[in-house]
Design goal:
Layout: H1 3-25, E1 47-48, E2 56-60, E3 85-87, E4 106-124, E5 134-138, E6 147-151, E7 176-192, E8 204-215, E9 233-236, E10 261-263, E11 280-286, E12 289-294, E13 297-298, E14 304-306, E15 317-321
Antiparallel strand pairs: 1-8, 2-4, 3-8, 4-7, 4-8, 5-6, 5-7, 9-11, 10-14, 11-12, 12-15, 13-14
Length: 322
């Protein structure tokens, strides 16, 4: 037997045999279980929320004879002259300056509970488009507070701010799709319009209104700010810019340095005896609500220049509220 083999048989082999016996006496080893990462679930798909069972349709204004408001949520989107519901029937729409969310006529859907709204589809009479279309969402049936989720009122007819959406083309069988920029949590939806493109004073003719969304998940609703001073009248008490620079420029939505108005034109500001002696601009939104601007920024002649006023812009001193 060679030397290496003798060393293995005399020294290492007994040690290996002892190790095998020892392992046989130990309890079975338990291997740790590896925790696999949990993949995030896809957000729930939006579902149609409107139907004749859970949705209550209310309205304000003149309606067609023998037409139930539930027609707009019965699931039938076909163009059928016998099944549309008209609100504001042969009625001229009039805005409500005190409460812009409550004009002469509107239609409203109560979804039964709060949902996270993502999309709407409007099926209106073919060959015409709703004018000045605005859609509001609220947690209250009286719309004491609300959020504007769609605004195609470019003329600011309702006084809810100049719309940033385009008017839909004349309606077809495909309907008009309103996709919300972000999910909005609400139970009530109210739709405003100012007639349609086929004639004035003819309300809105709906075959179907569909609202899509998911179950309400809680959390505070999205906060969106709107320029409530848009289109409001402006009064300058001292030395304005004149006819070449009308006060209406201040709230017309155009922020152009060439389109400014002046207060205290080519005059130095006076030290007041009373606060009301100072030159000021008043933006009147409705009776009892106003905002006054004092000062502004000055050019070398000392007059105050205001190319545009938006509520909340920095760099202005003001008092009152809108």
């Amino acid at each position: 037997m060679i030397k290496g083999t003798r060393f293995f048989s005399r020294r290492l082999l007994p040690l290996l045999l002892a190790a095998v016996m020892l392992l046989g006496m130990l309890p079975a080893l338990t291997l740790p279980v590896l925790a696999l990462p949990v993949l995030a679930e896809d957000p729930p798909a939006s579902q149609k929320l409107t139907n004749t069972t859970d949705t209550v349709v209310t309205y304000q204004g003149a309606v067609g004879t023998g037409r139930a408001p539930s027609l707009v949520v019965d699931g039938d989107t076909s163009h059928n002259d016998n099944k549309y519901f008209v609100v504001g029937n042969d009625q001229t729409q009039e805005k409500n300056e005190t409460n812009p969310a409550n004009p002469t006529y509107w239609i409203q859907l109560d979804l039964g509970k709060k949902y996270s709204l993502t999309e709407m589809k409007l099926f209106v009479y073919h060959g015409r488009a709703l004018k000045n279309l605005v859609v509001l969402a609220s947690d209250s049936s009286t719309f004491d507070t609300y959020r504007i989720i769609w605004n195609a009122d470019k003329e600011n007819f309702f006084g809810l701010g100049t719309g940033d959406k385009e008017q839909f083309p004349n309606a077809t069988v495909a309907g008009d799709t309103i996709t919300l920029a972000a999910p909005t949590e609400a139970q009530y939806v109210r739709i405003l319009n100012n007639g349609h493109t086929a004639g004035a004073g003819q309300g809105a003719h709906y075959f179907e209104i569909e609202v899509y969304g998911t179950e309400h998940t809680g959390g505070a609703p999205e906060t969106r700010l709107y320029n409530v001073a848009a289109g409001c009248s402006v009064i300058v008490n001292k030395w304005g810019g004149g006819s070449d620079r009308p006060n209406s420029w201040l709230t017309d939505g155009i922020k152009d340095n060439a389109k400014y108005i002046e207060v205290c034109k080519d005059k130095a500001q006076e030290r007041p005896v009373l606060c009301t002696d100072r030159p000021w601009q008043r933006i009147s939104r409705q009776q009892g609500q106003f905002l006054e601007l004092l000062g502004g920024w000055q050019n070398t002649q000392g007059s105050a220049h205001h190319p545009q006023y938006d509520r909340g812009l920095p760099g202005r001193n003001y008092k009152g509220s809108l």
